[in-house]
Amino acid sequence: MVKQRFFDDYLLYTVVRGLGWVVRVLPLSWALACGRGFGTLAAWGQPRRRAVCLGNLRAAFGTERTAEELDRTCLGVFQQMGMSFVEVLRTPAIDAAYIERWITVEGRQHLDRALALRRGVVMVAAHLGNWELTNLTAGLKGYPASVLARPQGLPRLNRLLNQYRESKGCRVISKGMAVRAMVRQLRAGGIVGILADQDAGRHGVLAPFFGRLASTAQGPVALALDAGCPLLPVFIVRTRRGPAHTLHLEPPLDLVRSGRVADDVRAGVAAYLRVLERYVRRTPEQWLWAHRRWKSSPHRAVVALSDGKAGHRAQVVAAAELVAQVWAERAGRDPRLRGMDGPWTACSVIEVRYRAAWRRGILVLAAWLGGALWWPAWRWLRWALTVDSRQALEQAWATVTVSSGASTAPVNLLWSRSLGARTIHVMRPPWPFARRFDLRIVPWHDRLTDDARTLVTHGALHATAAAHPPGVTGGSAALMRPTRLGLLIGGNSRGVRLPPQLVASVVTQLLEAAGQLDAELQVTTSRRTASAVEALLERQLGQHPRCPVLIFASRDRVDGAVPRILETSSVIVVSGDSISMVSEAVASGKPVLVFEPRAAWPWPKHRRFLASFAKVGAIRVVRPETIGQQVIEVIRGGQAFSPIDDRALVLNRLRQWL
User: Fold this and answer.
1) Which one, 149, 181, 527, 564, has the greatest CB density within 10 A?
2) What integer pLDDT is reported at residue 473 of this predicted model?
3) Cα 20 to the chain's mean position, in Å?
4) Cα–Cα distances in Å, from 95 out to 33, 408, 599?
5) How far apart are CA 140 and CA 371, in angstroms?
6) Closest to 304 measured CA to CA, from 320, 326, 324
């Protein structure tokens, strides 16, 4: 390992020295053109960094800029870095005449007045423009500064870079004994330069930056407050595509010195970030967006992709809720957030709709073959999706994206990978994406095993129940009797049939049981329920005095119908075709009876699922012709059931994963 590191260091050092000689021989315009070319290659050769850059840009600018504009800005970021790299390699050729020709200094009077106080000056800069030219300009203009620099992992390259920095009169202070060196420099009336715009982790100060709290190093502000010296923001901006720059020296920040050190430092950091944001907004392509600037921010976003199917939507919303809950727990433990107002997590649901089935097939191939590497993801999505779907995606950003179902899987992979978001898929991912997601949440009956990227649950996830006012039943009469029977009706699906005759038999028996128990019946259907079954329910229960709640999912818009029925029912009867309905009923903690629908052909998936729940006592699988008697026995006998809630299992895994 040591030999490999030595080899890498020596090789890269040799390559950089050779490139430096080449770009110093070339005319300046040619050298910068090469730099732009290096940046363009880097943008396409480093897809993860490009994704981080695009994700940060999307989160910062939201709907202010189109996808095309953000793409151009992202490419400009890498081209700017390429030109800056070339200029650093040309450092030995930079002299006072070069600075005089290409660097314009504005606000020099602010620095002169600050130095006249003889208390030293802290200059706080950012990774904006070619920040390495700042200390070269200062040295050649007669303002030698001591600059704080983070040592690089490769010693030879680190020494070469520091030689370039010190060649024009400045001094490099490496981290370690940096504080003492900076204090001595300030006491001598000198200048200390510090870059302070990257993520500072859990030890940084949280302050607003582009609408989100960003963890920022408190060193420059704390040093200026402790030394009693001015703090000047300093930014260099490339004014054209060539070598021309403008070095802006801002007036000293108006630091608050109330004696409450933590509050004073936070106010100073916030003031600096306000100035920095103003500059970045002017020239966004010149800032280092490819860095995970908001890595330690409590502000997060989770996007749930829905294919329109109620069961799939419930599962992605449930997973999104759990992700948000983990982030909320983490924010609650952060002492820096005390006294600040949340919420810190934004949750949204985006419906995925395709313009045509064959376009979906092409998008699957594109996602599988890494299409975003050779055509921007937003172009793929704009070509394949409906206007509403692609516009919603183009205006959103995410830290985590959740999908469920075959149609949302390629969208999740393309969109999330292009923005640097992490991916979750609920249920078995479709081929060919089995191993592409960062986390798979898969029910036991899909026959996968737990591993680093897979969490196996008992059943399907479900969202938390929303609060409903007492007596609200979707337009039906208020519940009057203490004993209530809940009936959840699914519908036909692959290999499973729920004929009207079967439903009629179940309803008749439940009405007889309700008469013997003096109970009420609460019924809801799913969107898969056949129209013939709905017509049957309307005839049997529409005006029945023992059925105050009858909700048809296909036509009645009643939010939280299923959670409301689960909350108020004594026993729940579910058709066995709906894995999501059974899972949600079991999680309610109520006794659950499941009747099997008819099988068009063998349906081992559903039977494996029901058998696993019955084995642990979470449900009782009964024949349709005995359902009424079974309900009476459960009500009068008080048999124990074992509720299963996969949410706790998923929460524990997410706490480790996020």
Assistant:
1) 564
2) 38
3) 40
4) 21, 57, 84
5) 48
6) 320
Tokens of 173: 């202070």
Backbone angles phi, psi at 418, to 5 degrees: -75, -20
pLDDT score, position 6: 62
Residues contacting residue 456 through CB under 8 Å, at least 6 positions apart: 442, 443, 444, 448, 449, 450
Residue 125's closest CA among 276, 229, 265? 276
Dihedral through CA 220, CA 223, CA 228, CA 233, nearest 10?
A: -10
Contacts of 167 (CB under 8 A, 6+ apart): 91, 92
Q: Is the dihedral of CA 354, 358, 362, 368 positive or negative?
A: positive
**Residue 151: phi, psi to the nearest 5?**
-60, 140
List, in order, residues 6 or more apart from 163 with CB less than 8 Å away.
none
Helical pair 377-384 and 387-394, crossing angle rounded to 10 deg: 160
Residue in this structure with the two tokens 């419906």, named with its chain if needed: 351
Predicted pLDDT of residue 1: 47
Under DSSP, the state recorded for 229 is -
Assess contact for 448 and 468: CB atoms under 8 A.
Answer: no
Tokens of 180: 């003492």
- Name the pLDDT band for 449 (thresholds 50, 70, 90): confident
Provide the 10 A C-beta neighbour count for residue 633: 15
Tokens representing 339 are: 């006294």
Mean of the pLDDT values across residues 139-159?
85
Of the pLDDT bands very low, low, confident and very high (cuts 50, 70, 90), residue 2 is very low
With helix as H, strand as E and coil as C, how does 510-531 read? HHHHHHHHCCEEEEEECCCCCH
Determine which helix (DSSP H) or strand (DSSP E) holds 448, and give its type and residue range. Answer: none
Q: Is residue 472 over pLDDT 50?
A: no
CATH number of the domain at 484-646, please?
3.40.50.2000
Please, where are the H alpha helices in 569-623? 579-587, 604-615
Indicate the pTM of the whole model. 0.86
pLDDT in tens, 72-106: 999 999 999 999 999 999 999 999 999 999 999 99
**What's the angle, vertex CA 650, arms to CA 649 and CA 656, rounded to 5?**
100
Q: Which of 372-381, 468-477, 584-593 has the lowest mean pLDDT?
A: 468-477
Looking at every residue in the chain, the average pLDDT score rounds to 89
Tokens of 215: 């963890």
Phi-psi region of 40 (alpha: psi -120 to 50; beta: other; left: phi over 0): alpha
Q: Check if the beta carbon of residue 230 is closer than 8 Å to that of residue 86.
A: no
Please give the full DSSP string across 279-291, using - where no structure is assigned: HHHH-GGGB-TTS
Instruction: List the structure tokens of 33.
Output: 């053109």
Q: Report the DSSP beta bridge partners of residue 549.
A: 522
Stated as kind and residue range, the H or E segment containing 327 is helix 310-332
Token pair 């189109």: residue: 66
